[in-house]
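To illustrate the input format used throughout this study, we show a single complete record. The first block contains the structure-token representation of the backbone; no residue identities are included at this stage. The design step must infer an amino acid for every position from geometry alone.
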């Protein structure tokens, strides 16, 4: 390692000088011996004696990956870069502003080095289509979109190019799981790869039916049931409106986590919910009033009442808009 050799008594002063001039290598340890010290540097420095010596490498880990980009991007570009990202198993999914797309591979490599994951993908589109997937582009690491994500003791296998999954809902899934009572019959109307059913079934003695229109999601849902060695879960592929006539029971709890379109299925949910059952309803909104009204209007058409028992902002989706949760207890008007 290229190093500056200085008398031991000068070591600290020279170290400070080299750091201030950004000439010192920060990824190797300074070596001190009986009379001399050796400081790793980036290049030859004329005013000091230069030597080539073995030094121990430091296992440095930056506080954020912006530190890895400071030599590649301007301070304004780093400010523009959204440093929040989704980590799913061994995969990281980034959102990169349009003005930084020309440097996507530099950003991808920095993210790979910082996170120590295997694959870095960039969002190419918003979630779209009836099967709810987004376009992704590999910008660093291995092109392997299949991974196993761990959440609250559960293992969730998925292909990030074929299914939608948000690790940012982990707290919400745990919250719902903690509110479940043993013995409940539960329907997840838009189950995806099964994170709600898997987390709930790992912690509660329940019967769960999960429905999704995406065949690939149901394929991974079935695999996740096996992976977690769970029973009493029934995966069904199809539109829940078409599948629901085959159900031979009503449900104590219905999960409706399709925030962009869940309101279109409230009539189905009101027909399938058991008296005194709970609907965990989700939508995108700037507040709770719209969701409360939609629940109330749907219940009224079925001669039912709604009692709002909890509201929560799950996550921000854009300035002024949230992914919101409303927990509603549904009762028959005839029982009032």
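Output of the design step:
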């Amino acid at each position: 390692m290229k190093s500056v050799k200085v008398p031991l008594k000068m070591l600290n002063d020279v170290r400070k000088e080299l750091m201030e001039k950004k000439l010192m290598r920060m990824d190797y340890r300074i070596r001190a011996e009986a009379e001399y010290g050796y400081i790793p540097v980036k290049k030859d420095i004329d005013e000091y004696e230069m030597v080539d010596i073995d030094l121990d490498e430091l296992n440095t880990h930056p506080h954020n990956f912006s530190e890895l980009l400071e030599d590649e991007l301007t301070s304004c570009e780093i400010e523009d870069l959204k440093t929040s990202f989704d980590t799913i198993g061994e995969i990281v999914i980034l959102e990169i502003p349009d003005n930084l797309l020309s440097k996507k591979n530099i950003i991808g490599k920095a993210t790979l080095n910082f996170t120590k994951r295997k694959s870095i993908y960039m969002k190419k589109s918003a979630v779209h289509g009836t099967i709810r997937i987004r376009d992704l582009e590999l910008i660093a690491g291995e092109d392997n979109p299949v991974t196993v994500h761990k959440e609250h003791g559960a293992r969730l296998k998925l292909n990030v190019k074929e299914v939608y999954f948000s690790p940012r809902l982990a707290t919400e899934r745990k919250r719902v799981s903690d509110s479940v009572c043993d013995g409940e019959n539960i329907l997840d109307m838009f189950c995806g790869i099964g994170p709600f059913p898997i987390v709930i079934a790992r912690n509660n003695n329940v019967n769960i039916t999960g429905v999704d229109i995406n065949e690939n999601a149901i394929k991974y849902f079935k695999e996740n049931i096996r992976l977690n060695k769970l029973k009493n879960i029934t995966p069904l592929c199809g539109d829940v409106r078409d599948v629901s006539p085959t159900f031979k029971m009503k449900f104590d709890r219905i999960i409706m986590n399709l925030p962009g379109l869940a309101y279109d299925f409230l009539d189905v949910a009101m027909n399938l919910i058991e008296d005194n059952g709970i609907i965990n309803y989700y939508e995108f909104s700037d507040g709770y009033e719209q969701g409360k009204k939609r629940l109330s209007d749907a219940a009224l058409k079925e001669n039912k009442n709604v009692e709002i028992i909890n509201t929560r902002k799950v996550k921000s989706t854009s300035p002024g808009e949230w992914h919101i949760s409303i927990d509603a207890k549904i009762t028959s008007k005839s029982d009032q």
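Structural context for interpreting the output: The chain has a mean pLDDT of 92. Residues 168-335 form a domain with the Rossmann fold fold (CATH 3.40.50.150).
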